[in-house]
Design goal:
This protein is α+β, with helices and mostly antiparallel strands. The chain has 4 helices and 2 strands. A two-stranded antiparallel ribbon has the order 1-2. The two termini are 16 Å apart.
Length: 81
């Protein structure tokens, strides 16, 4: 699914990590499973709201699943709402 209006809706929520206003709708790369690749992005239904600072922090960690585990947050649970 690709939907600009849905991504705007996701960004209307506060950042999932710090509760500041969200700038981005982060795509959960591990959410759909299956083969992944640089050019392959999960559907927009697998996005969560993040501020720019937290979004950049997540991308610099290298292991997205471990990042969320350390934060004790289940982003897939939020995305299912």
């Amino acid at each position: 699914m690709r939907s600009a209006s849905y991504l705007k809706h996701v960004r209307s929520f506060p950042c999932l990590l710090c509760r500041r206003p969200a700038d981005d709708a982060h795509h959960l790369r591990h959410a759909e499973g299956g083969p992944s690749g640089v050019a392959r992005k999960v559907g927009d239904e697998w996005t969560v709201p993040l501020c720019r600072f937290c979004h950049m922090k997540l991308h610099t960690t290298g292991d997205e699943e471990l990042f969320w585990i350390k934060k004790r947050i289940d982003p897939e649970d939020w995305a299912r709402i």
